[in-house]
């Protein structure tokens, strides 16, 4: 066997062996970092912290390969498929919008969001912000500051809208944005830092809440005696959106 080919095979074998016995594997922008022992957060962030001007408030670490999330998605997509068929004849526009939402959720990359604030400078100086990362496979989601907010759910179209500085959440919602199935009293906000906030947006209950760039605004379906299934659908959508890898 050619010596160069043999060397390549040996190197590949060693790399595979190292990954197999690694304690922590972190994937960042298609690059993989392997740690034999459980690293502190700052060790994970150090190799890439200064590569770009990252927007740390929106950074997130996810645990990959979560079977439960995929099971939830499967159940949700089945429910949305049933709704699409129900409205296909009586309200074809609504049926098409639900079909679009189904396609959007089917395209999401899912992983369990790890409950830790990702901030390189903070991790270097505050011990509590520099935890050890348990054994497993992870995805580190980093991006520069975004200038949009995603609006989805019981809306005419899932879309990214321009981020409005110092604006109230209600300013992202108009009557032309919503479908007949929308809950018009409140929206569910998933801030870029992972916080989940219920925001009243009707004229009679409005509560000022600003939105971080890169956040998600979910307009829930209106629950009623005629549509009790929407309670579970809303809950499932929020679970998946909270654990959606955005970039």
Describe, in short, the structure shown.
With 247 residues, this protein is α+β, with helices and mostly antiparallel strands. It is 34% helix and 20% strand.
Provide structural commentary.
This protein has 2 domains: 3-65 and 113-141, Roll (Ubiquitin-like (UB roll)); 67-108 and 146-245, Outer membrane lipoprotein wza fold like, CATH 3.10.560.10. Helices cover 34% and strands 20% of the residues. The protein has 6 helices and 12 strands. The chain has helices at 3-21, 41-45, 67-90, 92-107, 120-125, 229-242, and strands at 24-28, 31-35, 60-63, 109-110, 112-113, 136-141, 148-153, 159-162, 186-190, 196-200, 216-219, 244-245. α3 (67-90) packs across α6 (229-242). The longest helix is centred in the first third of the chain and has 24 residues, at 67-90. It is globular and about 60 Å long. The protein starts with a helix and ends with a strand.
Evaluate the radius of gyration. 21 Å
Strand content: 15-25%
Q: Shape, please?
A: globular
Total helix count? Answer: 6
CATH topology of the largest domain: Outer membrane lipoprotein wza fold like
Topology:
Layout: H1 3-21, E1 24-28, E2 31-35, H2 41-45, E3 60-63, H3 67-90, H4 92-107, E4 109-110, E5 112-113, H5 120-125, E6 136-141, E7 148-153, E8 159-162, E9 186-190, E10 196-200, E11 216-219, H6 229-242, E12 244-245
Parallel strand pairs: 1-6, 7-11
Antiparallel strand pairs: 1-2, 3-5, 3-6, 4-12, 7-8, 9-10, 9-11
Helix pairs in contact: 3-4, 3-6
Key attributes of the depicted protein:
34% helix, Outer membrane lipoprotein wza fold like, 6 helices, five-stranded mixed beta sheet, 2 domains, 247 residues, Ubiquitin-like (UB roll), alpha+beta, single chain
